[in-house]
Amino acid sequence: MIFSAFPFPGYQLKFDWRREEYRGNWYYSADLDREGWLCPALFKYFDEAPKEFYAQFKAKINR
User: Fold this and answer.
1) What is the rounded distance in angstroms from the CA atom of residue 24 to the CA atom of residue 39?
2) Fewest C-beta in 10 Å: which of 13, 18, 41, 45?
3) Which helix (H) or strand (E) holds 12?
4) Which residue(s) pair with 33 in the sheet?
């Protein structure tokens, strides 16, 4: 998964922040009509939970 707090070429989904819970954060995708919880490891990439983020998903290639 490639993700950013800003739109980037090739992003596939946008996620909007909903709420904090258990030191993690819930995000919602309107395209999927689903919520998902991101654990506190999110803060390894962001100083604070972004209000939205954009993601692209790619299959892992085993070599």
Assistant:
1) 4
2) 41
3) none
4) none
Tokens standing for 40?
């506190």
Amino acid at 56: Q
5-61 pLDDT tens trace: 999 999 999 999 999 999 999 999 999 999 999 999 999 999 999 999 999 999 888
Task: Spell out the domain ranges in the chain.
Answer: 2-56
Torsion of CA 7, 9, 12, 17, to 10 degrees: -10
How far apart (Å, rounded) are the C-alpha atoms in residues 57 and 59? 7
Q: Which token pair is 13?
A: 């989904």
